[in-house]
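User: what does the whole thing look like in 3D?
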Amino acid sequence: MKQKNIEKKNPFRAFKLKDFVFRAVLSAAMTLAGGVTMPLVMHTTLFGLRNMVASPLYALFCAIGLSKVRKPGALSVIGLFSGAPLAFMSVVMFFNNLVAGILAELLMLLFFRNYQKKGAILFTAGIYMPLSLPVTLLFSMWLNGSSFSDLVAAPIPAIFTSIGTVILGFFGAFLGCKIAKELQKAGKLRPYGEDADA
Amino acid sequence: MLEFFHAKKPLFPPVGFLCSLLALGVGMAYSSHLVLYGYIAALALLFALFGLWRAVLGAGLMMGCFGLLTGVLSCLTAGSFASFFETLGRCLLLGVAAVPMLSLPAADMTRSLRQMKCPGALTLGILVTIRFIPVLVGEVRQIREAMKTRGAGSAWRRPQTIYRAFFIPLTMRILGISDALSLSLETRGFRLKNKDASVFRPVRFGWRDGVFAVGTGILSVLLGVLA
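Assistant: Here's the predicted 3D structure for the full assembly of 425 residues, as structure tokens:
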């Protein structure tokens, strides 16, 4: 309880070893989820469809991760770790994950200041994938050789996929929060690092 | 996972990373020119000469197939053959530019980052992420087997069953693995701020890496001149 109070008072406390390990294993799960969903949609040129498909699973794991490690910077580190295996395949995907994580946390700090409230976790995990859309936009414009004006000329599919990314992102975040709540009740997931060190 | 693509004599990791970035950046800048195909072929040849032929073949084939599909779709939407060749070229470039990174063993990358005084937590996290993907694949298989045993094997269409029988056990396993791993690291004396820690088998920059970097640089300059 003492530890919990200290961390609630100062949310910018340094991360512990177990925080890093937990987020690394969670990032491995996210990468695996991406590896399952990406082949289904990788041949499409429709803007935002890849983000939309990956959105619920990424948000779910992010919400679980943030429910345990409630410290600012947690999502940026998840973005860095989940982007690292992708850097071996494409540097663009690495920056996509990292930049989205940093932007989501900056917005969380702006609106909520820390992860104490459940709403902050839901918000940050929910907007993580939608915030990767701008980077995807630049990348898909280059890959497909289309310009921004081409996209604006026929915006309806892109609008639908973007809205879908947001909706599915928040749905995944909601499920993640629900799983975290159940595991907290069962005493398996303890936020603020309440469980003792080795 | 990526062991098939690893070279027998891997490159110095920062050289691999920078060359990958350079090839992608320069290729992107001149991606609408047909000379891009020459650049991709020259890069592929250079990489193969340095023993990265497996990664060249793998990434080239994979991104070639992907490029053909995307190119056909792009051609149908744009209504010109030029867009087909442009899209195919870009996809091939993506695959070939990734080769220097694809052929790097994750352990070498981590050692190199440690040598560059990168925080231990980050290098550890990156290594754990890469190493635990196959472990989690095994866990997912076990959970699916357990679902079959409990008669929930064909329940993928029922979301509530997936939530209860798949996601909760998976989260439990993630928590269990991370707790056991951090306990194991702590009992072995791993600390986040350990200035005296040494690097096992340090990775060194060699003349081969220098030649590789210069070769990639010359090809990139040539592309700029010819385009």
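In plain terms: The first helix of chain B runs from residue 13 to 29. Chain B has nine helices and no strands.
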